[in-house]
Design the sequence.
């Protein structure tokens, strides 16, 4: 009978360790997703900003082929850009929690945030009073050039 208790204690202990390892793996995966999306959004924003500078009269969503994206870049689904009057607005609809803060930390800029009521809300300074185009969905994570 004492051996049965030892086996039971060992199983409970190993189960707890497995749950802890699983939780750490999920946290690491979420962090990796946020990091990958933020870096991809910044690469795409850079290419869109160059396109906007070279084509100041352009208004709309440029095709990916028109942007000078690096050959190694694989655009995640959901990243898009809108250009008007020489300014680019790169955005990602429905981003995971932590994406605006990761972008803000990476850029140290108030020109990244979330669209709320048509205005850019930055994690650094809250409302920026920068009006965003109507073509950007409400709640999208936005990075301006």
Sequence:
């Amino acid at each position: 009978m004492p051996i049965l208790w030892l086996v039971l204690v060992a199983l409970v202990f190993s189960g707890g360790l497995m749950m802890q390892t699983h939780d750490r793996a999920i946290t690491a995966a979420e962090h990796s997703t946020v990091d990958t999306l933020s870096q991809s959004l910044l690469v795409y924003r850079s290419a869109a900003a160059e396109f906007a500078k070279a084509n100041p009269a352009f208004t709309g969503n440029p095709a990916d082929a028109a942007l000078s994206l690096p050959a190694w870049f694989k655009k995640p689904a959901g990243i898009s850009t809108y250009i008007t009057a020489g300014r680019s607005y790169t955005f990602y609809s429905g981003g995971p929690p932590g994406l605006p803060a990761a972008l803000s930390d990476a850029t140290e800029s108030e020109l990244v945030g979330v669209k709320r009521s048509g205005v850019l809300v930055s994690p650094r300074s809250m409302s920026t009073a920068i009006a965003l185009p109507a073509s950007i969905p409400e709640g999208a994570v936005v990075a301006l050039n």
Summary: The chain has two helices and six strands.
